[in-house]
Design brief:
Blueprint lengths: L3 H15 L6 E2 L6 H10 L4 E8 L2 E8 L2 E7 L5 E7 L7 H10 L4 E10 L5 E9 L7 E6 L4 E2 L7
Antiparallel strand pairs: 1-2, 2-3, 3-4, 4-5, 5-6, 6-7, 7-8, 8-9
């Protein structure tokens, strides 16, 4: 039977079902000082900074000039990798050509430039391709010369 008690429980159930899993979130003061110092030196003008714990490492989700960025730092503060959103038109011509040839008709989503390593950074380009349901979207990484690579793996 449906009664008024059920009506009172409905908002609670909906709130729990729609809430984001924040179990990996870390308060800024819980991030080691070495990580915060290194991050602030590398990315001095950020807004909307949030921290998460990824295994032993710390992931910063932030904006620079209204552009979404992510950075992964180890506990000593070394930047392991970082990425930021770019426009499709900002992809290198070789990557655009490879996508047009190998994935024609699929819509590009979440186009990002990704930098790997700390001392001699290497740039890659991550793209997510919308695929018809029920198949999952394709998540691909390209080198600047338009070669699809498996290493590094796509970073969500």
């Amino acid at each position: 039977m449906f009664n008024t008690r059920h009506l009172l429980l409905l908002p609670c159930v909906l709130l729990l079902a729609c809430s984001k899993n924040d179990s990996d979130d870390v308060q800024p003061d819980a991030v080691p000082q070495a990580v915060r110092t290194s991050f602030a030196t590398r990315f001095p003008t950020v807004t909307d900074l949030d921290w998460e714990k990824q295994g032993a490492n710390y992931e910063a989700d932030f904006k620079v000039n209204a552009v979404d960025h992510d950075a992964l730092l180890d506990p000593a503060g070394t930047v392991l990798m970082y990425k930021y959103d770019i426009a499709t038109t900002d992809l290198p011509a070789a990557v655009q050509a490879a996508l047009a040839q190998n994935h024609a008709g699929l819509r590009l989503d979440d186009v990002e430039t990704r930098f790997q390593g700390s001392s001699t950074e290497t740039s890659f380009y991550q793209v997510e391709l919308d695929v018809a349901d029920p198949q999952p979207d394709r998540k691909l990484v390209y080198s600047a010369d338009g070669q699809e690579v498996s290493q590094p793996a796509y970073w969500d």
